[in-house]
Design brief:
single chain, alpha/beta, TIM Barrel, seven-stranded antiparallel beta sheet, 18 helices, 27 strands, about 25% helix
Length: about 600
């Protein structure tokens, strides 16, 4: 397909004024700051509308003072490719028409309605965009869209405008949502029922391709074979028999920058003269060339910059198109043996240090052992994070697993204590999914080991704080969450009290001994710890028999209540682990 000539890009004055009037009416309404922030957040980002106009909104609290002397210095910089982009190419040089469109500042926000922006679709690239401004000292700054739907070239590149309405209309599992959701006029919104067993997958290692496409191919082949009554190969059988898939986080992750690269950004590199282009609005297009490199970041998923969390990490998209995620989810929902649920693992308890380069500082409270604490108590931040989650769920998920619930803490000046932000955690469970007018609430799993990191937390953690407040949810249990080291002497003796807890009160716990933390914990032991050599003569033998012991499998999966989960890498004995960089630039 040959790229078409671009239409003239310009601000639509009357539509922009209507958007400003709407925003002003929200801000003046009688409501809490958070309620107002939630309504504003729904319209932030870039939305391609049914009337073919593009609505854009940015939260820009850093621009509320006198830093900006003229609104002409705040522009939406749009890059329209003049040729087809090959999203599968490892590296290519692409020519763009570059236009800068002045937007309108309104308090902490910048708004505009643009004519002529081309949306991305499965078969073509859309316009790329970011906000650019120049301060009173003449320094150029870039503000990226934290609520972007598509980031094909990573967090440091401009986002891609995408036709999300078309994507939802074309999805192959529309009937699934009609069956399981409620319409707009229905009084209640149903919550997705819990599955009976879960298989955990890491996209980068769960198929030969390391992408959503690779998994779609595997599950479609299995579905077709089962429908035809054909036998599965042993390689296929390890994926089958589960009615839910839980993915390790698929949000955009931190990015490594090559030391031999002189470009500002690894995957979307503009020459330095283009990067420092004059910010005075260029109403006529100029040309700019960018070197595009297909993202290839390998990460276990928990090292997140938060920006773009509503989108998908491009390194797990073979096509770099959001449709690829929808195709996989639809394949699960249309599975021949019955629908398979899709569970997202959401990381909103912390941000890596690299987030400071792409997000406004209002998102952060200060450093922690992972990088940065997120400022969930600021109403607009809280609303934007929940809106990121809503956009993620609208890809078609059935459930969520909330990572590190114990990390959601804040200082309460009324009690003079650091307290858990349970209200936010429970709000995550109540985010409403809306796909083509059909609404649902998610099946929810909380990982919460409070009072972590207090010394001795493993022995005193109850793992019940959240399921007691929301009984329809689940929590990770004491054997799947805590340091899992059955290769050490006396492990089951020390854990036997926890075994009893699982049996007698674990009906709302995630059980099993295979997950992404299992072998990582099993190999992270002090060298002077006593190994249980009764399990084998070599360390690999010990690990294998410790984690694949028929006795533990029998009582965990056969006699214990709760919801069992397996990790495919553990099931097939595949190596698993990631080195984690802890310096200031990439650190966690």
């Amino acid at each position: 397909m040959i790229a078409t000539a671009p239409r003239r890009l310009q601000l639509v004055e009357d539509e922009t004024q209507s958007l400003l009037m709407w925003a002003e009416s929200i801000l003046r309404a009688v409501a809490t700051f958070f309620e107002k922030a939630q309504k504003i957040a729904r319209r932030l980002g870039a939305h391609y509308r049914a009337d073919r106009l593009t609505e854009v909104g940015f939260w820009t609290p850093d621009l509320t003072g006198d830093i900006i002397q003229s609104e002409d210095r705040i522009v939406l910089e749009v890059y329209t490719p003049t040729e087809d982009i090959d999203f599968r190419s490892a590296e290519q040089t692409v020519t763009f028409n570059q236009v800068q469109i002045p937007l309108v500042k309104q308090g902490e926000f910048v708004w505009g309605v643009i004519e002529g922006m081309r949306p991305g679709r499965r078969e073509r690239a859309g316009c790329f965009y970011w906000l650019r401004y120049i301060d009173q000292d003449g320094r150029v700054h870039i503000i990226r869209d934290p609520l972007a739907y598509s980031l094909p070239y990573g967090i440091f590149a401009p986002a891609e405008l995408y036709d999300m309405r078309l994507l939802q209309r074309q999805r192959a599992d529309r009937s699934y949502f009609r069956r399981t959701g409620s319409g707009v006029g229905d009084a209640t919104i149903p919550r997705v029922e819990a599955p009976t067993n879960i298989l955990q997958l890491h996209i980068n290692t769960a198929s030969a391709q390391g992408t959503f496409e690779g998994l779609t191919e595997i599950y479609q082949r299995i579905s077709d074979k089962l429908a035809a009554g054909d036998d599965l190969t042993p390689e296929e059988a390890v994926y089958a028999g589960y009615d839910a898939i839980q993915l390790l986080p698929v949000e955009p992750t931190i990015e490594y920058r090559r030391e031999d690269s002189h470009a500002d950004y690894e995957f979307f590199a503009l020459p330095s003269d283009d990067a420092a282009a004059d910010v005075a609005p260029q109403r006529s297009p100029t040309t700019a060339q960018a070197v595009l490199r297909k993202p290839d970041t390998q990460n276990w998923g928990y090292d997140v910059p938060i920006l773009g969390s509503g989108a998908t990490n491009p390194a797990v998209l073979g096509s770099l198109r959001p449709n690829e995620v929808i195709d996989f989810i639809a394949t699960l929902h249309n599975f021949s043996e019955g629908p398979i649920q899709l569970i997202y693992d959401l990381v909103y308890g912390h941000a890596d240090n690299q987030a400071r380069e792409v997000m406004t500082h209002q998102f952060f409270k200060g450093p922690n052992m992972y990088g940065q604490d997120l400022n969930h108590q600021l109403p607009q931040v809280r609303a934007i994070l929940l809106e990121m989650q809503r956009r993620k769920l609208n890809t078609g998920a059935d459930g969520i697993r909330v990572d590190g619930g114990q990390d959601f803490r804040f200082f309460n000046p009324l009690t003079d204590r650091v307290e858990q932000d349970d209200a936010y955690l429970l709000a995550m469970s109540d985010v409403v999914q809306d796909i083509n007018g059909y609404r649902r609430l998610m099946f929810t799993i909380f990982e919460d080991g409070r009072p972590w990191p207090q010394e001795g937390w493993e022995e005193i953690s109850r793992y019940r704080e959240l399921i007691e407040q929301k009984p329809e949810s689940f929590q990770w249990g004491p054997l799947i969450f805590a340091h899992n080291t059955p290769s050490l002497q006396g492990f089951w003796d020390r854990k036997w009290r926890r075994v009893g807890e699982v049996i007698y009160q674990g009906n709302r716990w995630i059980t099993g001994c295979g997950n992404h933390d299992t072998l990582r914990r099993g190999t992270q032991v002090e060298i002077d710890q006593p190994i249980n050599w009764n399990l084998g003569k070599t360390l690999p033998d010990v690990l294998h028999k410790a984690y694949n012991n028929p006795a533990t499998q029998l009582w965990v999966c056969g006699f214990s209540p709760g919801l069992p989960m397996d990790f495919i890498n553990a099931n097939v004995g595949a190596p698993w682990g990631f080195f984690r960089n802890t310096d200031d630039q990439y650190g966690v």
